[in-house]
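Incident review: delayed structure delivery

Summary: a single-chain prediction request sat in the queue longer than the usual turnaround. Root cause was a stuck worker, restarted by the on-call engineer. No data loss occurred. The affected request and its eventual output are reproduced below so the record is complete for anyone auditing the incident later.

Affected input:
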Amino acid sequence: MGMFYGPSKTNESILAMCTDATNRHLICGDTHGEIRIWNIENYCCSTTSPIQFDSSAPPLVHSWQAHLSPIIFCEWTDYKGNGEFILTGSSDHTTRVWTINGEQIGIFGQRQPWDIELLITTRAEMEEEEQQQREKSAKKIDNDENGWS
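Output delivered after worker restart:
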């Protein structure tokens, strides 16, 4: 059994909470407008008897200022198996979409349209390019070490 203080600042409260599909991450939104993601995969998993009470916090994986007002809703989603995203709603009257790392994708109702499909495609292309660059660099290093040009 366990309990820890989750808000980002003293005298704040958690108003929204959810987990990812595997219950590995606990996602919390607080009254300061901050999202905090904790790794709870091994939190309070003691098998000793009697059950020990744990008051230490699990590892904090990510946190960011998501809104300027209290977050009253958060939900994790895996969009078409292409990535983990978090939806947040706030008393600032906005609903936003974020990556699991805290990068804002868009705000529902904003003037400039955004497209999550475009983001996913662009990221996949960038990751492929980076992988090709790493392979090219590794090959060059290998060739240099062997005296080949």
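Verification: The mean pLDDT is 85.
Action items: add queue-age alerting; document worker restart procedure.
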